[in-house]
Amino acid sequence: MGGYGDVQMIDENxxxxxxxxxxxxxxxxxxxxxxxxADGSARVIWGKNEVIAAVYGPMEAHxxxxxxxxxxVLDVRYNMAPFSTSDRIRPGFNRRSREISKVTAExxxxxxxxxxxxxxxxxVEIEIICAEAGTRCAGITAASVALAHAGIPMTDxxxxxxxxxxxxxxxxxxxxxxxxxxEADLPMGILPNTGELVFLQMDGDLSxxxxxxxxxxxxxxxxxxxxxxxxxxxxxxx
Amino acid sequence: xxxxxxxxxxxxxxxxLAETDMRIDGRSRFESRETTLETxxxxxxxGSARVQMGNxxxxxxxxxxxxTPYPDRPTQGGLMCSAEVRPVAGRGWEAGPPSAESIELxxxxxxxxxxxxxxxxxxxxxxxxxxxxxxxxxxxxxxxxGNLFDAFALxxxxxxxxxxxxxxxxxxxxxxxxxxxxxxxxxxxxxxxGRYVLDADKREETGGDERIHITLGDDGHVHSLQKGLKGIxxxxxxxxxxxxxxxxxxxxxxxxDNATKE
Lengths: 238, 262
Hints:
The structure holds two protein chains of two kinds.
Chain A: E1 28-32, E2 40-46, E3 49-60, E4 73-80, H1 95-109, E5 120-130, H2 135-149, E6 159-166, E7 169-172, H3 176-181, E8 184-191, E9 196-200, E10 203-204, H4 208-234
Parallel strand pairs in A: 4-5
Antiparallel strand pairs in A: 1-2, 2-3, 3-5, 6-7, 6-8, 8-9, 8-10
Chain B: H1 7-19, E1 35-39, E2 47-53, E3 56-67, E4 78-84, H2 100-115, E5 125-127, E6 131-143, H3 148-161, E7 164-165, E8 176-177, E9 185-192, E10 195-198, H4 202-206, E11 211-216, E12 222-228, H5 235-260
Parallel strand pairs in B: 4-6
Antiparallel strand pairs in B: 1-2, 2-3, 3-6, 5-6, 7-8, 9-10, 9-11, 11-12
Helix pairs in contact in B: 2-3, 3-5
């Protein structure tokens, strides 16, 4: 959150720089089966973000010390490709990708029926190919589609989306400029069938009313994104 | 790579197929999988390409950085090529520091491009001794069904040939296309069932022996060679694949020319 209040990002008609209304999401397009050698895979193109996710498993968990006697372990990695941003990213794990991997794993563990696969491992690999802002949300969304595509039983999909605030206006699904100069960011992971949450982060500054609006925007956006996820999963392979 | 579960069964199956000059997916010895090449597919890279060969899919992205030229080469910029095979690309690839296999991949592709002289590092100099461009080519495997070498090399040269030097973003003049004077192409052959085949898939790599990578320039000049894995080959075997490589490289060069045309 830069908090640069002098950058004008909402015009006199209340529209955003890319022409969206405050509650609008960027266009989103999902496809399954994009990684032929994986057990399940998905690509999410969301605004200028492009994210791929692969699922391998359930497979034997090794070394044995990572095995759980009563359930599978979910091994989740979030990574940004070196060419995914305007400044090249040096390969290798960093603190940011570690944290995102952890919270993503915990979100997905909340819906995957891990107890069906004791002593095994399910690998979830999230790769950001092109980043525009909101990559963690796109990653979680892609990963849950890839898990479903792999036929891993889950209680629900996870739809992840963020709302925030720019120029004191609450807006849904921040783009790059809004993320850089905005005043708040509230990413959530929502179960579309129940409206429950499995992932929640926030940074910035929101009043109680603004927070409520951002929350509602996320819930409304999640319903629309869920339609596209379901379409991709029913539509079959690419 | 992890140890495959049934390499011996696969080996003997591949040998049996080789007796009647067959391959596991029905191809003939020097037949490649269907190969497609697209360029300009990554929004945040200055040059990019995507190659699909059967179920093998790779991406290449070019980025630029400013560097201080090395004291002994004050008028030269830099070229760096790095290949990453992350665990997304297949169940055999594991997380952690780069494996020897992925380092070899990056280095062999790098040598072919560098030694062909397709990028003149003197042209990358901005102010001698002070500032120069460093070109970074990142190769990324999406789906590994064998022969990442050729896919990486093909995507790499196509990405370089479409790269735009982002001078405006760095406030040093106008953007211009990266000068790339040649089109080095790699062709890889694997020993499977006792004879060399072109463009081996994952099963052939798993149940095969040594491999040979040949990079040829526009005029048929040899720019890099690499023999990988355990195995013995004869001069006659090498002659046969080198002769084939000349025609195959010309085909792939045409693919690059078509994909990078405006």
